[in-house]
C-alpha cells in the first residue's frame, strides 16, 4: 500500500483504487465479495513494480543506489499516517475488552517494528492464540512490504558491484536476481500453502514472488512492448481476472499458492496496458476521476477502514449490515481524505534532510513500541487472581445443596477476566501438546512412573484442558498420567477434512496411527478419549473403527464426556454485559448435547465418565461456579476450574483402577 506520487501513470492510480475497494468491500460485506482479500496481492504487484523500477532507474542513471536516501523517502511517505493510526488504536484500547489488551498491545509493537505478518503467522500455528480480529491485524501486509523495502536495496548492492566489475548489464543482473527470488518464493508458496495455510498466508517468503513479479515488469517492460491492440486488450483482461478472483474465491480457497496467480497476473496485465489509447482499453475506467481520487487516498483508506470495522463490532456486538456498512465506508473515506491532506502530503513534501528523516522515523517507531510495551508490562504485573474469601471451591460447589451460582460475583472470581485466556494447562508451556504439522507422539507426564496405576488420555485441546485435573490428582494419588494430544486432531486413522487447513488432515491420521502403536507398547491400565466431536466431519462409525483397534488390543478404553459448549465466548460476554446471568449462562439442553463421541461410546459399549453435573444444574450451565470461571473461551475450561475436578475424577476412576477414595 504505497502512498501516491503525482507523476505516476493514471492506470496505476486507478489500479490502486480497485485493490483498496476490493479489500474494503470484503471486510464490510464478505458475502458479496468473498475473495476481496486479493486486493492485497494487487498492491504487492504495484509495490514491486514501483520500487524496483525506481531503484533500477536510479542505478541506470547514476551507477549507484542511495540506500539511506531510499529509506528516507519510504519513511516520509509511509510512517506518518501509519503512526497516526497506530496511536489512535492505542488511545482506543480501553474501549476493548480487557482480555484483548495483551493481543492488541502485542500487535502495536509488532506493527511498529513491521513484523506484524510474522506475529499473525505465529498465532496461526498457536492453538492458544486469541482468534479475535485485532484492530492492527491489517498491518500484516504493510509489514511484508516494509520488509521488502528494507531488504531489497541491500540485496541489490552486490549486484551493483557485479555490474561494475563485469560485462553483465544492469538489466540482466536485476532480471536474474528477481527471477531467482521470484521462482523460489512461488515454489515455496505452492508447497507450503496446502500444508500450512495459516503461515503461508502471512509469511513474507510466500509473498515475495508477487513483489518480484512487479519488479520484473519494471525491469523488462520496455523489452516486452506489446503492440497497441494487445496492450489495449490487456487492461480489461487484467481487470476481469481480478474481478473473477474477488467473486470466485473465498475463505475456503487454498491461498496464496497457485490461486494467487490469477489476481497478480491480472494486476500485471493492467500495468502493462498503461498508456493504451483505445476507447475499449481499461484507461477510460481507471482514469475516471472517482478511481483517481480513491487511488490517491488508498494508503490512508487502507489504514483507517479496519480499525473502524473492528471498533464498531466491539462497541455494538452486531454484524455489519447495509446501513452500518455504508456509514463505516463513509467514515473511512472521510478519515482517509483528512489524513491525505493533513498528514501524508505535508510530510511527503517536507524538505527534511536524510538524517533528520531517519531520526524522526526511529522516534515514531519507538513511541509506538513504548506504548504497546507499557500495556504489556501493566498486564504482566497484574496479579493473576482476584482477592477472594477463602479458597475457591470450583466444581465442588455444585455438590452443595445450598449453593446458588446466581450469587457469584465476576469481580471476585478466579482467574480474573483479563487473565482468563491465559489460564491454560501447563502442557502448552512444556510443549508436549503436539502441533498441527508434526506426527510424533509427545506425552505430558504427571505423577510417578513407578506408580501402580497408569492412565493415558488421548485427544486434542479438549483433552488437554483436562490435564490440570490429572496433574492435581497425581500429587496425592499413586498414578502415572500421560496425556497425548494434538492440535485440532480428531482421533481417527482415516484422514478427516479440516476447514482451516482446507484439505484432509493427514498429519492427524498419521499421529493417530502412531498413538495406537505407542499404547500397544506401553499398555496402560486405562485409556481415556476426549476430543472435539467433529460434527459434520466424521461419523460415529468412522470413530468406532479407530477406537476398536485399541479395544482389540485388550486395553480398557473409556470416554470422558465433552463439557458443555456455549455458543459464545463466555469471558467476553461477562465483560461486556452487567446482566451476565441472563445473557452469559446457556441452558443445559442447548449447551450439553450428545455428540459423535457420545454415540461412538454407546455403540461400542464403552464406559462414559460424565462430569456434566459439576458444570450444570437441572436447567443451566453457569459461567462461574464456586468462585471460579469455568470457561476460557467458548469451548475450553480454565485450568483453575479443571484442577477443582481432581476430586470428582478420583471418585470416578477409583472403582476400576483401585486408587484411594476420600473415605479410605
From TrEMBL:
Residues 11-331 form the Acyltransferase domain. Coiled coil: none annotated. Residues 432-648 form the SGNH domain. GO terms for molecular function: acyltransferase activity. Signal peptide: none annotated. The chain crosses the membrane at residues 12-29, 35-56, 77-97, 149-167, 174-193, 232-250, 256-272, 293-313, 355-377. Keywords: Acyltransferase, Membrane, Transferase, Transmembrane, Transmembrane helix. This is Acyltransferase family protein. It comes from Microvirga arsenatis.
